[in-house]
Fold:
Amino acid sequence: MTFAVDLGFAEKGGPAHLDLEELLSTRLLVQGNSGSGKSHLLRRLLERSAGQVQQAIIDPEGDFVTLADKYGHVVVDGNRTPNELARIAQRIRKHRASVVLDLEGHDAEAQMMIAAHFLNGLFDADRAHWYPMLVAVDEAHLFAPAMAGEHSDEARRASLGAMSNLMCRGRKRGLAGIIATQRLAKLAKNVAAEASNFLMGRTFLDIDMARAADLLGIDRRGAEQFRDLKTGEFVALGPALSRRPMPIRIGPVETAGRSGRPTLMPLPELAPQDMADLIMAPPGVDEEPAYRPPERPSASTGDILSRVAAPTAEPEVDDDPRGPEERAAIVDAIFADMLADPDAAFRPVPVLYQDFLVHCRLKRLRGVETDMAAFRRRLAMARAGLSGAAGDDPEWENALARGIDLPEDMQGVYAMILRAARDGADCPSDAALAQAYGSHSPSRGRFILSFMAERGLIRSEADFRGNRVVTIPGTPWRTAPQTALKKVASPADEARARRLARQQAMLGGA
Structure:
C-alpha cells in the first residue's frame, strides 16, 4: 500500500508529498548549509510517517529525543558497550520499536564507533526480522567522511563501512537510509551515490551548487537558485518525490528540538567594571558548590586538626595533676621526636602507635592522649606538617569542615592542600602528598587528589604548560602552578646516558 507523507507545500501552492513505500526502496539524501532547515525537514518527515513505519534516528546532537514524548520513540543512550549496542539493535528489529540513538556528550570519534556498532547490529539482524525501517542519520558527513581527518583509521573504517552497508546493501534487509549533510563534498561518494531521492537546500559555495545541480539535472545557470532559497525551502527530485526538479516549502512540525533556532535577546545592563568582576571572580562565587555541606554542626578548627583534645570516652580516674594544655604540649613533643626520623613517616601506623605508647608511659600519660583513633588523626596532621591550632579564621574552619567525612589518614593531606591554596603557595607535588599520606609512591598522591576531586572538595586542573593548579570550591583560594608529573629516569635510561657520556669522553680524548 502506498502512503503519501505530507512534507508541506509545492511551488504552486499544492501539497508536496513523498511516497513512503517508494522511499523504502530508493533512499533519500538531504543537503543544505547550516541553518537551511535540514533538521526541520527530517523532523517533519519522521513525524508524518511515525505511525506507518518503524524508525531509527542517529542523533549526534540530541535534538530528536523530543520525539519520544509524543510518538513513543525509545531513547537509547550511546554510553554502552559494543555488545550491548548490537544486542539492543537486534531487539529493536525483532520487536519493531522506533528509537533515537542519542550521541550527545560523546566526542566525534566515539560517536563514529557507537553509530558503527549500532548500524551493524541493525544490519546483522536475523532474516525473520527484516521488517521495513527508516534509518535517519543527521550530520551524515560525521559518520561517512569523504577524507581522512583527525580521527583514527579504525573509527573511520568502522563508521564508513556501516554507512556503506546501510546505503548500498540495506534495501534487501528492509533498511531505508535517510542521510542529511551540510556539504556533499564532505560526504563519502559511495554513500551519497546510492540515494535516488534528493532534497537540496540553500547552498552558497560554487562547487556545492554545481554538484547539486548535476544531481538534479539542472544547468549551471539554474544552479544559482540554491543561493536564493530561504530556510525550509528545498528543491526535490526522485521517484518518491517528483520526476522533475520541484521547489517545495517544508510545513510546520509538532515537536521541537532542544537546541532551537538562535534569536536575538537584550544584553545585560551592567557597568564594565561590574562585568569584569563577574568574569574574573574566583571559582565557586556565582555557582553552586560541587560539595554538599555537612548536615552536622560545623566543628571548630582545633577539633578537626587535633581530635586528641576531644575525648572519645570519659576516663574513669584522672589523678594527673597536669592540666590539658601541659599534657597536649607533651604529646606535641613526643610526635616531634618520633617524626624527626625521616623514615618514621613511612612506617606502619600500628608500629608507630606502639612507639607512641612507650613514650607516653615514660611521660606518665594515659587516657585520651593515648587513644588509637586520636593518634591516627594527630599522625595525619603531623605528616602534613600541621600543628594542632590553625587560628580563628571562619573561612578556614568552614573549608576544613567539608573534609570531615574523609578517611582519617587523608584529612591531614586535605588540610595540607587547603593551607597551600589559602597561602597561594606552590601546589604540593605528588611525592609530598604521598609522604604526607605515609607512602613512597607518587601515584598515591595523584590518587588522593582524584579521590578528593570526585567528592567536590577540590578542583585539580592543568594550565597550558602542564602545571597543576588546585582551587578550593566556594573560596578564592588557589595554589601556585606546580608540575603535576615529573618523568623519572628508568635504570635503562640512566645506563644509556652513562654510555653516551663515556663515548663523548673517548671522542674528546681522541
